[in-house]
Queue: 2 jobs
Job 1
Amino acid sequence: MVGWRRRGCVKIAGLLSVVAAGFAGLCPTQAQDPLPSWNEGPAKQSIVEFVNKTTTAGSPDFILPADRIATFDQDGTLWVEHPVYPQLVYCLARVPEVVKAKPELAEVEPFKTALTGDIEAIAKLPIKDLEKLLMATLSGMSVEEFASETAKWLAAARDGRWKRPYTDLTYQPMQEVLQYLRSNGFKTYIVTGGGQDFVRAYSDRVYGIPPEQVVGTAGSTTFGYDREGKPFLTKEPRLLLDDNFAGKPEGIYLMIGRRPAAAFGNSTGDQQMLEYTKAGKGLRLAMLVLHDDPEREYAYGPALGLPDSRIGTFTQTLYDEAKKDGWTVISMKDDWKRIFAFENK
């Protein structure tokens, strides 16, 4: 009888251990890796240590939940920006429509070059000419019409290299950072030199960032009424906020009202945002993505001897400032196990 009881107890204990192990496998634990697409190293470690130190009660680096603000550039930081910005591709797709409405533009630069579809020639256009294209193709419609047209284009357009929707080309490691920060009480914002309305059209679906947490280059709008007396806003070709370089901290102050505790970028256009972030009191995190993986994505700098680029320029001066001021430079090649969610793990 005693032996039966002993054997029964052993069986029950074994069964309980199996059940417990099953629950342990199903339930998330602190031991799970919040950044599985990152290789172990200083970059990943700096993110985890920052989160642990700033969210642990009693820590000297503790940040109050209301002040847990993290800002992210988009182009080149959250998704692919080469060979040209996706928004520019969208604008080029709208040029024929603009020229159809105003045929005289067909022989006027930059519209003449844009109509050729020659991406290399278009990329060589002066910045002022590119701005003309943006203004002409991103205005003259209601904000609702613009959102609808953007959604249609995003659903149909495909990147030339991967033949996938542009919204598939977000960086999986950065998606994990966004989620990791939010799960620890941080509010995540996109602060981009790209068009604010353009990014707002998909930010919630693609990044989990609602439109009111997108700060970008913004044009003016005009309030009016349609024939039935219904109020609406029309996008106008007048610049309201140039959210690049010094415009980024200015936009952060204007739209967010709090200095970020963490900021992520990839180019000289993000320099002032990172400087502004690091100048705050207490522990701060500043990170730059370096595109140094020509096989899985692209390689450009010209920092560290990488090819020069007008798009997403990362100069040696910026790299040196990052090293001097304690910013973390993320190497795509060395720090990321995979770049896109559609890659095999």
Job 2
Amino acid sequence: MWIRSTRIYTEDGLLDGWMRIEEGKIIQFGKGEKEGAVDFGDLRIIPGIFDTHIHGTQGYTMWEEGESGDIDFQLDGFLKGVASEGVTLVLPTLFSATGDGEGALEVLKKTANRVGKPQNGANVAGVHFEGPYLNRVGEKGIRPKPPTINLDFVRKAIEAGSGHLKLMGLAPELPQSEELVDLLIEHGVIAAFTHTDCNSTQAFAAFDHGITVATHLCNVMTGIHHRDVGGLGAALLDERVTCELICDGLHVSNPMIEIVMRAKPHEKIMLISDCTGYSGAPTGTYRGFLGHSGEVIVDDLGFVRETGGRLRGSSKPVLYGIWNLVENVGLEMDDALRMASLVPARKYGFGDKKGSLKIGKDADFVVISDDYKALETYVEGRKVFDRASEGDKIFNQQMLETLLR
């Protein structure tokens, strides 16, 4: 198969030409026209996005209780949903509604069982468990009692992951956090700095102990003050730490995004969505979902808030973040794409075959419109999403029927 466009974003630069794909791999590039190629004209072809932090999308969720329903049904819809947003590789992200309850382990186990198996959508790279040992809430949140770390539960989670638990977040100021980090590292799980009240001294100590990822930088961590740079400042300064960043312009304002981009080497920044099942939902008011009580409002821009104004999870895909970085913040397209694909691929051990369009790598790519919508998504050379035929069939109508007020 040959794919042709005037704008192919290869690892080595922008190409007006074609790429040849055989057995799911990119085997050749060439300039100019190519007879017999699938010709996308001037549409941009970008590397498949690797979203390492996403809880749900298009009405499907990784939640383990409540309205989520059958786990396999949710996973099928989730993986097709993220493909409709340009994601070809994903770490489905569990955020337990029941703390360290057994329900989370079943979701983890079934998700891990998808690793290495072709899907009708994005491929699963592993599992990200955000928590459950966290110690800070977001804006306007009600502070709960700090959780007690249960190492036996973590051992069960590691076992349930069968070697595919890739990332686990924790608040390092909690008692036994160092033992937790040691346990994770011992089993090849990356430890993340997550939902934490750490000051900078505590944060640097956590990085010294082996934490190497800062979860959704800026959000739900202590900010920068001139007498203590907080968790945020420590994560920006420490070269060992790779930072997730939500780039929708709302969770982190564009001026703050610009500060981050100036302060942190871009090979240490990973674009994430942190989306929930509300992503892509029609404007309206919804009854509780994802373990949330009360009502949730999806506004005309697609952002999600509680009735009191508190943000209730992200709702914009990484492609939207790329649009914001390029069109509003002023980054170069290839720079934004690198942070969305190659940086996370390298961080999680897939850089030799994923994350960029390069000879020898998997043919994971997305055809996007000028308004940054995924038109077609390919995983290892297989088309797993086509907006022309599937665009109106992606969202989980079951969720709308049960939750839209």
